[in-house]
């Protein structure tokens, strides 16, 4: 007990003041629901759901949404009631000394400010919980074992922040996507709030009132009682902390004021809308594409319709263009036809049941501009980005545009000693040609005859033009228009190794390729003749020469486009840009 108390007290003391800034506050009934720095916002969308969520009402008339997680159904908001479920009032305890001396029920609001009620609910001491009359009829305060059931379900079903199914790293899945202070710790609740709340539990950092009557930790911690004692003086509770990736299970004095979440008495799921996700678009042409998704839950009611909807505006619905693909759960794909060339489309999958229609995450893609054919007859799709038109695939030609053959050099030693043109395929395997194209040394680039007629290998300045356009037009992964974080916009939605870093190419491939460039990780051939990094990196020559040519590269674990000068003996991919 003494050790636990020391740990909790240490956590309470980490709160710091945050510097003031121009901030947008979202309020309801005078209470702040969420807030964001104005500089972080580029648009505001008002959205009204078109389906009635499953709800429960307490004795005071407060309405709570619910979510089914595994075999349990939980409230999605903290309890707010001021009365027991028999109508008897719960004593409100304002004074700190009175609070610390309580051994009977009592409640309060954080900082004794009723404005905190709507967002964070009330704070109850454990004696209130122990009456057995706090939850609405048909609901109860969860036992310690029921909290453990919730945790075990989430761990076993991949809700750890890194997708693993062992250890307790599920805090982000339980925490809301707003209200938490930021953190740089990997997997912590405060590290990229957009990745929170995959379970739907939506836990908020409502703080607490400790056994001395002092309020602390709002924004940093969320504390929720269990109905289970731990000896005469203490009871078990669950703690979420902005800097931590796991759910903590301490016990503390029954005088403390913590939040309460209720769980339904029976295990019959409440009906809800389907749960589904959208996959990245592929097979993109000038006028068509393929997309689809996975319905992971039918919401407890049969699916009556599902498919894909799309628009040239964000947040498409079934009122826009749509396909109709069936009435079963699982994965499906759809063909999107009748598209306009050189246009950006936004796509979501949808599914409908008796409760309503739900949508998956939004993905976007850009249709192609046209095509070009090289001397070998290879056809390349093209995309216009800003004022430039680029090939969408790596060059595959084995001949110059005058019909002369380029030497195919497979031997490593011979490759190392080259000071003349040469090409190869990754690992000297022609099966890699279709996906990744060929790898050329710089001497091949320098002939000026590699690209199809009317096209050329881009200069360093032309690569920079591409980068500057994407940065200035919001293609950074976070939507900003400064700094170089455009790698995801240039990388393809397939082929890259996975990575957990925020904004990196390998983190959620469905968010890649918003520019239409579709860069693949084709690896390279080292000057020694060895091959490296397929799946990890894509490397493209420029035609500008200093002591060597300047190369652009994309790497699965990075968010930026990087580059540097390289010796002419290296073998890199080539993308061509159209002559002006």
Q: Termini, distance in Å?
A: 75 Å
How big a fraction of the residues is strand?
25-35%
Structural class: alpha+beta
Q: Indicate the radius of gyration in whole angstroms.
A: 29 Å
Shape: elongated
Helix segment tally:
11
Question: What is the total number of structural domains?
Answer: 3
Number of strands: 34
Largest sheet: 5 strands, antiparallel
Describe the overall structure.
The protein folds into three domains: 50-264, no CATH class; 275-366, Sandwich (Immunoglobulin-like), CATH 2.60.40.10; 370-578, no CATH class. The strands form 13 sheets. Strands 17, 18, 20, 21 and 22 form a five-stranded antiparallel sheet that branches. Strands 3-4-5 form a three-stranded antiparallel sheet. The termini are far apart. By secondary structure, it is of the alpha+beta class. The chain has eleven helices and 34 strands.
Output the keywords.
five-stranded antiparallel beta sheet, three-stranded antiparallel beta sheet, disordered N terminus, 580 residues
Outline of the structure:
By secondary structure, the chain is an alpha+beta fold. The protein is 12% helix and 28% strand.
